[in-house]
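Protocol check, entry for the methods section draft. Step 1: assemble the input record (protein sequence plus ligand SMILES). Step 2: submit for complex structure prediction. Step 3: store the structure tokens unaltered in the notebook. Ligand used here: zinc ion. Step 1 record:
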Amino acid sequence: MIKAPLFLLALLAATAAAAGTARNVILFIGDAGGIPTLHAASIHGHGQPQALFIQHLPHLGLMDTSAADAWVTDSAAGMSAIVTGQKTNNGVLSQSAAAVKDQRDGETLQTILEHAEQRGLSTGVITNMSIADATPAACYAHANYRKKTGEIFAQLAQPRFGDGVDIVIGAGRKAVLAGTRELGIDIEARLRTQGYVVLDSPAALSAEAPRVAALTDDGDFDPRPVVARAIEILSRNPKGYFLMVEWDMHPTKLRRGLDRVLQMDDIVRQTAAQVKDDTLIIFTADHSFDLRTRGGKPGEPLLPAEPAASAPAAKPNVRVDDGHTGEQVLVAAQGPGAEKVHGFIKNTDLFHVMMSAYGWTAAAP
Ligand SMILES: [Zn+2]
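Step 3, stored output:
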């Protein structure tokens, strides 16, 4: 009596695999990398629009990024929506919208990274920002305010599911060490007892390390070898992995922001060549930014030569105010489950795109 249903279950599982569920998901977040910024970066780097690899991924959607309490999101609420499937208030990390910023906790929301840990997959978070900054933190921590650096990073060593994030690479080393020390925690010692190789530079990452925490104070490291090695490490888990790679591209410093778009575009291209067809790759932004291309023409550099001429400049081709904006951002994807990325979607939908790509429902496995 028992054999038949078990056999059917096995058959269903095999059918699901054949239908193309993803073993791995890699989520690339261009922080502030909205469509206007991608457009300007393509012209800046390639002399023409739509020349980014990201812009040629096969499945595209337009994603609303709003927070629960505002049309314009910050990185905390923006990323929380993407990784938990629920909108929350600006400043809040992966807690429900019942949270009051810096005052009261909301309900703790299980993130896609925690779902992966719960099911025995390997996980990683890589960023050129502080590892305790909003975008990476929303993956592994829950806090009513994004600025609680020590409390946030301490949660990395107290995972709610599995053995916690396996690959931890980012900047903000001094701040997270100071923040955790204030709470009486020697975080590096604690991470070592949990099997992490603790490094002070992402460049020192070896593909042999089983678990790694590599923190630096210099976010300008070369992401290409780091992401490639991280994928090698994560790929050893036959159950698969979840990896989030954030590259900050706020164009507040315009040239640096656009160069970082090109850098991230290279990482996505390299990753697409590295992984097999069992991997869902998604690129999106947590929110857009108020950059506008207002001039320029083919054959001329989009940005003025550096250093800026002392003569009074003509109006620049690209104008930047100083803030996030609320319009839709690009979601681009390839791999199993990528076909669900189309049309206008919400930031919360992306969580379900990833869950269903793995073949999971939100109920405990
Ligand atoms: Zn952001």
